[in-house]
Amino acid sequence: MALPQLRAVVPATLCGNRGHPVSRGTLGPAEPAATQNTAPARREDVTRMERLADQAAEELAGAPAEDVVRWATDTFGDRICITSSMTDAVIVHLVSRVREGVDVIFLDTGYHFAETIGTRDAVSAVYPVNVINVTPEQTVAEQDEQMGPRLYSRNPDLCCYLRKVVPLERALGPYDAWFTGVRREETDARSDTRVVQWDARREMVKVNPIVDWTQAQVDAYIAEHGVLVNPLVYDGYPSIGCATCTVRVEAGADARSGRWAGTGKTECGIHL
Ligand code: SF4
Prior knowledge:
Elements: E1 26-27, H1 40-60, H2 65-76, E2 80-83, H3 90-98, E3 103-107, H4 114-126, E4 130-134, H5 140-147, H6 151-154, H7 156-171, E5 177-179, E6 196-199, E7 204-207, H8 215-225
Parallel strand pairs: 1-4, 2-3, 2-5, 3-4, 5-7
Antiparallel strand pairs: 6-7
This protein binds iron/sulfur cluster.
C-alpha cells in the first residue's frame, strides 16, 4: 500500500510550535496561554496539513492498525501523543510496539474510580510510554465552592468542559497529532469517524488506528497480547468515565449506556 509521505512536508512552523512546552510526568493547571502565530504562512501550512490528513484518510482506510500507527509515528515523531481513558491499554500497547516513549495523556478529573487510577499507574509501570497526568484548573473542592456541589448532576456539559475539554486543549499544545482509541461502533456520533481526521478546531491531525474494530476484535487483541485492562470492565463497566457519571450495565447492553445514564448525554466533548 502506498502511504502518503507526510514527514518531508510537515510544515516546520507547526513542529512543536503550537503551544508551550509541557512538563513531563504531570501537567497541572494555570499555565499562560500560547501565543498563536496567525501569519499567512502558518495559514498555508495548516491548509497543507489538512490536505495531507485527508489524503492519509483515503489511503489508510481499511489498513491494519499497526500500519496506521507506523505511518503516524514516522510522520510526526515525538509530536504525536496518545489520549487514554484507561479503560484498557490497547492503544498504548499498539503504539508502544511500534515506537517507545510516546506521551500518554490521561485526564485526571478528580472524579475517577480508584481502579482507573490504578490502571493508569500500571500502564505507566508496564509499558514503555510516558504517562502525563493532566488536571483541571480547579480541584473538585474549589469547583464546588465556586459553582456549588455536584455540578456533574446539574450541568454535566459544563462539568465535562471544565474538567476534560479545557485541560485537554492545554495538554495538546505541544503536539501536531494525537492517537485515540475511538471506534465507530461505540456511538452514533462516532459512526462516520475516519482513520485519520483533520481536527479543524485544534488544527491537529487525529489518528484513530482501531476505528473500524469491533468489540470482539478488541477482546481478541487483549487476550492475544495480555493487554492491561481496567478491572471494572469485568465487573459490569464496559465503558468507564468518572465514577460520578458511570453506572454498571447489564450483560449484553450497549456498552456506552452506563455513561451519563438517563441524561441523553453520550459524549464528554473531547471527540466532537
Ligand atoms: S464525566 Fe461527569 S464528573 Fe466527569 S467531567 Fe464529565 S460531568 Fe464531570
